[in-house]
Amino acid sequence: MSDVVRFVIVDALLVAGTFFVLIAGVALVRMPDLLLRMQGSAKAGTLGVGLIILGVAVAYGTADVFTKALLVILFYFITAPVAAHVISRAAYRSGARMWDRTRPDEYRGVVERDIAAEGGRRPDVED
Q1: How many domains does the chain have?
Q2: Exposure pattern of 59-97 as b/e (b: 16+ CB <10 Å)?
Q3: Measured between alpha carbons, how far is 116 from 80 in angstroms, rounded to an integer?
Q4: Is the dihedral of CA 14, 15, 16, 22 positive or negative?
Q5: Radius of gyration of the chain (CA)
Q6: Fewer CB atoms < 10 Å away: N or C end of the chain?
Q7: C-alpha dihedral over 113, 118, 124, 127, to 10 degrees?
Q8: Is residue 16 part of a domain?
């Protein structure tokens, strides 16, 4: 592969990755509640970081770096969505407010919410 073609591919991957990371940042600011923020930032951020790492691997152009980059991308694509899900579930259980137009509440009746979510007192917290 010629250097010009490789640099064009690297630039395209880095610009696309940066764009998705920017979208993840915008999602953190613009989304109305924690659960939507987590979804927007996790999906766009994961794709953005994956594209950036792939761009770095193509820039180096060696099989060793490419293999390590693919392993990092695979690890990140597995762990980032799982971490976002666990954090979102913990926020739901602890009573994080949901946007009033969030429909449907699929956790209702399945996951027990903390009593503080309904405006009551938590029995494990003393004044």
Answers
A1: 1
A2: eeeeeeeeeebeebbeeeeeebeeebeeebeebbeebbe
A3: 28
A4: positive
A5: 20
A6: C
A7: 160
A8: yes
Least confident of 8-22, 24-38, 43-57, 113-127: 113-127
Q: What pLDDT score does 54 carry?
A: 96
Task: For residue 126, tell me if it sits in a domain.
Answer: no
In a domain, 123, yes or no: no
pLDDT band of residue 37 (cuts 50, 70, 90) is confident
Asked whether residue 124 is domain-assigned, the answer is no
The mean pLDDT value for 106-116 works out to 66
- If residue 77 lies in a helix (H) or strand (E), which one and from where to where? helix 63-94
pTM: 0.78
- CA 96/CA 64 separation, integer angstroms: 44
Range of the domain at 8: 3-118
